[in-house]
Amino acid sequence: MRWDLLFDDLESQLDEEHREEERALRVEEERLRLGRLSLRDRILALMRADGETGTITLELHGGASHAVRPDGFGRDWLSGDLHDEGRRVRQCVVALDRIAAVVPNPSQLPRSLASLPEASSRFADRIGLAFVLRDLCRRRRAVTVTTIDGVHHGTIDRVGRDHFDLAVHEAGTPRREREVRQLRIVPIERLVLVVLD
Q: Do residues 102 and 90 lie in contact, with contact meaning Cβ atoms separated by under 8 Å?
């Protein structure tokens, strides 16, 4: 009888140790998964959760905060609707490496930690910021460009591998030679935000 109690006690201890090892393993796996998440992954998880992101606050290089509803991602950029204080909504493109902080609301934080599906093979996920700028150049869209050094309004004239030419002119006027006040060659690495007018 006493041997049965001893064996039951040993079996119980072994089961408890096994459960503790499994729990420790799950905790370590979660730690490793979180360690592999990038900022892009977290914002993308917000966008993909329930198919609806809502608006997130992005604090950009230089301290400016913007409410953005992301709707597209590339390799090093995100696009979305920019909501300003005047309730005006405009399209924007944000350079991911110029995001100083993402300020989610309390309900968004857990969604940003969600697991993403395996690596995507979508073409858009491989498109770089220069490609997006070339499209804006081709469309002759007036833009407001925020760089690390300032804000300028104009039209993108051409895009190189690591820079673009911006013809600076007044907002609301088309790009005409007589309206161009300045031509700027801007390194893409200095780009923070592009807002489409």
A: no
CA dihedral 133, 154, 195, 132 (to 10 degrees): -10
Sign, CA torsion 141/146/151/157:
negative
Level-2 CATH architecture, domain 129-196: Roll (2.30)
* pLDDT tens per residue, range 55-104: 889 999 988 999 998 988 899 999 999 987 766 889 999 999 999 999 88
Topology given in CATH for the domain delimited by 37-126: SH3 type barrels. (2.30.30)
* Interior/surface letters 170-188, b for 16+ CB within 10 angstroms, e for the rest: eeeeebeeeebeeebebeb
What are 166-192's pLDDT values in tens digits?
Answer: 999 999 898 999 999 999 999 999 999
- Count of residues making up the chain: 197
Give which of 82, 105, 103 is closest to 94, Cα–Cα.
82
Does residue 50 register a pLDDT over 50?
A: no
